[in-house]
Structure formats: structure tokens, C-alpha cells
Amino acid sequence: MGEGLMSLLAHTNPGFIVILAGMLAYVVRPSLPRAIITIGGPLLGLAALVLHGAISEPLATLRMLDLTLVLYQVERASIVFGLAFLIAATVNSIYALHQKDPLQDSMALIYAGAAIAATFAGDLMTVFIFWELTAISSVFLILKSGTPEAYKASMRYLGIQIFSGVLLLMGSAFIMGEFGTLEFDAFLSDGEGLSLSDDPGAIFLLVALGIKAAFPLMHNWLQDSYPKATPTGAVVLSAFTTKLAVYALLRFFPGEDALIWIGAIMTVFPVFFAVIENDLRKVLAYSLNNQVGFMVCAIGIGTPLALNGAAAHAFCHIIYKGLLFMSMGAVMYRTGTTKATELGGLYRTMPFTAIFCIIGAASISAFPLFSGFVAKSLTMSAVGHEHMTVIWMMLLFASAGVLEHSGIKIPFFAFFAHDSGKRPKEAPFNMLLAMGIAAFFCVWLGFPFLGGTEFLYGLLPYQEEASAYLDQSLWTTDHVLTQMQLLVFAALAFIVLNRVKLYPPEKRGVVLDFDWVYRRPLYYGLVWVGDVWAKVGPAMTGAAQRLSRKVYDRIEATFSPQGELSRGPLSAGMAIWTSIVLAVVMVLALIAGPN
Amino acid sequence: MSETSTDELTPDTKPAKYSGDRYFGWTSHPKAGLIIFIFVGVLSLGLAVADFFVHRHEYIHIAEFKMFYALYGFIAFGGVVLSGWPLRKLLGRPENYYEPEEGESDNG
Description:
The structure holds two protein chains of two kinds. The longest helix of chain A has about 40 residues, at about 520-560. Chain A has helices spanning about 1-10, 15-25, 30-50, 75-95, 100-120, 125-145, 150-180, 185, 200-215, 220-225, 230-250, 255-275, 280-300, 305-335, 350-365, 370-385, 390-415, 430-445, 450-460, 465-470, 475-500, 515-520, 520-560, 570-590; strands at about 60-65, 65-75, 510. By secondary structure, chain A is an all-alpha fold. By secondary structure, chain B is mainly alpha-helical. Chain B has a domain at about 65-90. Chain B is flat and about 55 Å long. At the A-B interface, helix 7, helix 12, helix 14, helix 15 and helix 16 of A face helix 1, helix 2, helix 3 and strand 1 of B. Strand 3 of chain A pairs antiparallel with strand 1 of chain B, so a sheet runs across the interface.
């Protein structure tokens, strides 16, 4: 019995367990059993991952519609992402314990489960199915805010996410045509990905993944929707969609040159928007863009060190970004807003939330002794090793920018700065517990001698390079010194600018971004076309009907049996002469023969 | 806004002691800003001096210059912050810019 259960777990995609827990969470209404399900589901998924069978071999398959769906296949890279997803799902469930909302609990788990299931899928069709499930389930986390703005944002979000899925399906169709199968093993041989020049479907896949990863100009669904989600919804959303795309990029496009520049631009441009944004959850959304940029750039570099960097960064980012969203979610829950203009001085009554937020901020800023340092260093070193000076300087600039918007702005304007006079209660215990667990991971993974860094590096796809970097490069004096110089001098700039009143004060308002194009000119253009058609349409339809009726009547009057051409001797004579000419031509052709 | 708990939210009208003062109360001291400035300044100075005693192995040529990381961090951060002034003028709009018919919302 025990062995049978172990074997079942070893061959079950952990994502399926989380999805099942999500479905149960909707049906089971009493709080305690639902809590057991929402926390127990991801924990059981973790157990399944720990017990997994062989690596790089299909562990569960399904034959359907002439396709082999590889429902469960574990790769070294998928362990890193899957494990981070499962930890995030568990922590998120604890964070959401105070809310008595079966629909949100359920959708959060189904969304997480779908992302996990896609991570451990071994073919494109299985990825597509769960790709779409992440879109459909996650939209409820925005909708549940219940505001008109949230409703509109959720519809835009859903449309863009589904479009990404359609592109993924188109790319899959090309892959099917080229390789005759959708199984990864057939077209991702020896760790090499797809080629944009050689594989016709690759461009569709890249754009599909680019939308989910929020590439520049495709990024606004993120800033549009995440800040409008519920306090717990934003935490859940921050973990999965973009990192699933990063994982897929890592599998399909390692070493793709275009990603180097795309990633570098992604790290830089959000910094400028974040500095003037008033909504702190939106600042975090821009920060998410910036962080994913580091991962995308590393994937573009494509060396073992860089790919280790992308995976390690994703693992740490899922946790510290979740922690920052959790702290802002707690502020939202207690004060009803995350706008910097309405916050400040909350440390007085929310000190533990403040402490956890600061730990998240230190981690994302990559201060030595915190998780961001041990992750981001891999990518920076990989870019340096390739001697890409401009890219390296862009990433270094973005590192200083991260300190500005996530390292200082978030904790400073929420918990310190001017006193807003708000004295909310401290976050509920379950929220503090979830933040505490995430904060523990941020410190454990980054602090030497605690074993966390060794654990993280032990998970990375390229073991030899990870071990060598850990032993020889990570904790060297010059590495720690230069990172501290960058961050401390950047912090000094903040203090100086603040003291001489050159730091732009927070101001209510929205900041225009690329979504302006489809929310203003394109939207109002379509509205105008609709208005014009509503007025001109009926008149044009009437004119077209009258014209077509005239043409039909004329044709009928000419060619019908009662028509002009059928009347009188001319028509009969023409028929006879046509037959005679045809007969003569046929006889001549027969005489002439084929030669 | 269905998922918030702001019932206990009341404006503060009189000085009071809060649990958070134990950890962060010092930040409200009038001289706190100056003390932090001096602390970070001294730390910066120490890190700058250390740059002349620690041998650095760089793969990017420009990073070999002394104080490169310190200056780059200071200038990058300062540049980003100062860019906020013109950027806000260029891209800032009223809060109800996209949804004027719905009025304002706290939810972004």
C-alpha cells in the first residue's frame, strides 16, 4: 500500500495535485478543512517532486488524437522552477488563510497548479493546455477586486493572455509540421533550443512567450492588472505567469542573441517608470519587469553560467518578489490603499510587516547576505565573461535602479517618510507567518554558512559551473566590495537628493505607458468606427440591396429561359451554328492527330 | 475593495506609544536624517578607501578604474531620480485619465 502510494506520487505531475486541491478548495466550505486542503495540496506536490522518478524520461504519458501527451517529465531546470512554484503556492495559501473566499482559494491553486504542470510537461500540447488554464484561472484574482477598473483590466488581461496561447498553438502547429511530433525530446536535442532562422514556428513561440514574460511593448498587461488584483491575488499573480515564460524561454531559446538585448532593455526602462509611479503595487509590477529582464538576458547569453544565473534568479525572485507583494498586500488589507501619497509612518503599528518588507527590499537589491546577491551575481559574471560591455553597464545601471524603486521607495514611502496619520492594526497572523517564511528563505539562501546557498546552487542545471562559481567567485572580497560600493553610493545619492529636496515628491495621478496606444487612440478609433458604422451602415446596406436587386433583375431578364437571349430565331440559329463549328473543330483535331 | 479590513483605521490625534516605536522609533527623531546621512557617508568613504587596497579582477575593461562602481552607482541612481522631474511632466496625467466616467478609485 505504502509502496503503491509512493510509486503513484513518483509518477504524478505535482501540478495535477495542486489543481486537484484547488478544485476541492471550492467545494469544501468549512474553514479548517479548506485550510488543510489549500496548504496540504502544495505540500503533497512537494512530496511528489521529491519522490520523482528518473530525470529526462517521460514519467506519465497519454495518447490522444494521434498525439502523445507527455504529462510528466522532470528536467534539471524544471526542478528549480517547479520547486520555487510549490514553495510559493504553499506560502501563498498561508497568506490567504484569513480570507473566507473559496473561489479565490480555488483559482489561486488551480493557477499555481497549471503553472507547475506546464513546467513539468514534456510536449507542447500539454504546455498549451496548462498555459491557457493559467490565463483563465488567474483572471478571477483580478476580477474579485470588484471594481469597474479591475473588471476592465481583467478583460484586457484575459484577451492578451489568450492571444499568447493562440500564438503558442500556431507555433506548435509549425513544429508539428516540421518534426512530426510535439515532444520536447524530438526538437530540443542536447539542450539546444529552437532557431529563429531555421524553425518556422519559432517566431510564434517566441512572441507567445514574450507576451507572458512581458517583453518591452508587450509588458503593460502586467502593470495594468497586477495592481488592480486583490491583496492576495497580486501576491499569487507575481509568482507564476512571467516565471513560467522564463522557464519556457530557457528550454526553447537558450543562447538566442535577440534575448540579450530584449532582456537588457527590460531591465532598464521600467526603472524610469517606477520612479514616478505613485501606486506602490504598480512600482512592484515595474520592478517585476526589471527582474525578469535579468533572466531573459541571461538566457540570451546562453552559457552554462548564464543559464544557472537565470534559474537561480528566478528561484530567489519568486520568493522575494512574493514577499514584497505580501507586505504591500498587508498594507492594502489594513489601509485600503497602496498609494505612496496616502501612506507613510506605518512602522508604528505594522513593525513586523515593515521588517519583512525591508528584508524583501534588501534581497531584491542584491545586498550581500541576501538571496538576490547569490542569484544576480551569476548573471552579471556571465555577461562580464562574454566581455559585453554595453549590456553589462545596462544591467549595472538597472541594479542601481532596483535599489531606487524596490530597495528604498517601497519600504520608505509605505512605512517611513512623512507620517500619514494612519494607525492600522498589524497584519493578521497568517500574513505575518507567510511573510516570515518568505523572509527566512531570503536570508537562508543568501547568508553564507547556513547551507542555503549550497542548496540553491545544488539545484542549478549546470552543476560543475555552479560549484566552481560558489567556490571561487561568489564570496571573494572584490566581488562583495564592488557590490557594496554600487549599492551604498546609490543609497548615498538618495539621501543627498532627499536632503536637498531634489527627490521628486509623490504625486497622485497615472503615468502613461505603451498601453496608452490601445487604451486611448486605438480604443477611441474603434469606438469611432463603430459609431460611424451605426449611422452609415443602414443606409449603405439599403443602397447595396437595391443595387444587387437591379443587377439580378437585369441578369434574369437576359439569360433566363424566358429572357431575351432565348426568344426568337436568332437564339436557335446560334445554337445550330455553334454545334456545327464545334463538330468541324473536333474532326480537324482528329485528322491532325497528336503529332 | 471587498478584501480589506480598515475598520480599525483612525486618524492619530495625540502622541502615543506604539509597538513599532521599539524597533523604528529612532527614525522619527529630528536628527535621524542627519545621523543616517553621516553613517552612510562614513560607510561610503570606507568603501571608497578600500577600493585602493583590494585587488579587483575585472572582465570588463572600464570597471578596472578605481571607484568605478561607487561613481556609477551614485550617478545612475541620481540620474534616475532626477529624470523623474521631466518624465512626470511628460507622462503624468490625472488619476481618472483612463476611466473618467467611473471617477476615482483607490485600487489603482
